[in-house]
């Protein structure tokens, strides 16, 4: 039964290999990829149901018992995130066939795509800090492949920087793991947590924690380590930007969430206070970046950063309410960022430009697209009853309960500015005078690209309106993360 | 022995950082390669070095080397080889397409 938890990793890996052989037959590779992505989603949904019913699934690979072998841990948090990942994947795979050029499609887009999903699911599910590094590498390797897909001038220029920054932070990750291993003598996260708890995180352990935070913060684009993100996320194909924006930074945040609630949770005065300040700066600088440009792809890429700030804020405040807020916001943000990047892709496609000044009156030609964009803006800014509101409400409640007024004000102000930055696209791009379309022949493809966005948006609305159904599980996850003993006991079986 | 290895890792890190701060792409790539070598040596040192002891643990063997760091660097070496070769190809393509291998000229401030 516990082998079930390996499926979210193994299935996309197999899918990636299968579609590699079909790359030259485009109609076939599309159908097969779409089917495989849907199968993945269903299987991960089944795993989620099992975890929900029967509790955490722990797989000791090769029957090596817990602290010695490599283990996979499927708890509610990791499996929920893996499930959300697969929802994004399904939306992207249906969108991809319209958005990619022929050349990009035949150069193994679908293989890289499935390998990326493998890496992301693996990073969520693994229970071993070195394997976290390995899965980071798996997803980064796939992302290196995706970012250069298309061979554009700007793409090659930005991907060089993207690869370099990630190589550097990966090597720092390995070094930090070496430090951690020499201090606690184990790599199993539950076992590390137990040993750190025994000495109450004395001595060098806090330093190691901060080093690990530095590594994860680079991947998650926390202030001041976000400088690499906007340009590298805005140059590739929209569907690739979607995968990056919705999934990659979230893996960084998940790792921070996991490591700093499970392992390094005993010096909260120092580490978690630092997070609060960094979160505030992340929000403000991110949103200022979004307001600074007229390129819609860059605006969207900058908008990833304040969302990271919100999630980090929940981790920094470190109460059950705020951690549940972070988890809720994490799920919400994966879905809405997916929808938004896809939307921006369609807008840039139909307008034939990503410069905001050159487009106007799109809503006369594409009413559905326009209203989808409007709803998505409301969701992102956190207007009730949409899902952004619930996550922000929990975070702000948590902040007020801890009397962190500074961060609460920063969060509210940046929410307002996010709304402003997005509504700017709506006003300039969709309103305004009706102009002749630059590419009227693209109408049909654009309509086919719109419906995966509709699915993501309706999910996001459901997540907000149906908060009463989802909230108990999320609250339970928050409680669970604040009590690391449950995780340690379920892995080490004591 | 550990001290010498730690110093060596330190030297590798220093040269790596120096190379990473250069403008020429090839030097930066050499920097990342050196950085990964430093990190690998460092992992090996952290597991304590014992000369002449096998990395196995069984009832007959009394003195043994910790096998885990060796397994770790094996994985890590493979990954860093892969990334270094990818970087070389990428740098080649990027410099061909952009007509320069100077990072200063690859800032890309214009909108596109």
UniProtKB/TrEMBL annotation, chain A:
Keywords: Antiport, Cell membrane, Membrane, Transmembrane, Transmembrane helix, Transport
Subcellular location: Cell membrane; Membrane
Keyword Cytoplasm: no
Lineage: Bacteria, Bacillati, Bacillota, Bacilli, Bacillales
Superkingdom of the source species: Bacteria
The protein, known as: Na+/H+ antiporter subunit D
Chain ranges of the NADH:quinone oxidoreductase/Mrp antiporter transmembrane domain: 128-417
Membrane topology: Multi-pass membrane protein
Sequence similarity: Belongs to the CPA3 antiporters (TC 2.A.63) subunit D family.
Entry's transmembrane regions: 6-23, 35-52, 64-95, 107-126, 132-150, 162-184, 204-229, 241-266, 272-291, 298-318, 330-351, 363-384, 404-427, 448-471
Keyword field contains Transmembrane helix: yes
Entries under InterPro entries matching the protein: CPA3_Na-H_Antiporter_D, NADH_UbQ_OxRdtase, ND/Mrp_TM
Pfam family name, one: Proton_antipo_M
NCBIfam families: PRK07691.1 (NF005818)
UniProtKB/TrEMBL annotation, chain B:
Protein location: Cell membrane
Record's keyword terms, sorted: Cell membrane, Membrane, Transmembrane, Transmembrane helix
Source organism, top-level taxon: Bacteria
Spans traversing the lipid bilayer: 6-21, 28-47, 67-92
Membrane topology qualifier: Multi-pass membrane protein
InterPro entries for this protein: CPA3_antiporter_subunitC, NUOK/Mnh_C1-like
PANTHER family registered for this protein in UniProt: ANTIPORTER SUBUNIT MNHC2-RELATED
Protein family (similarity comment): Belongs to the CPA3 antiporters (TC 2.A.63) subunit C family.
Protein name as annotated: Na(+)/H(+) antiporter subunit C
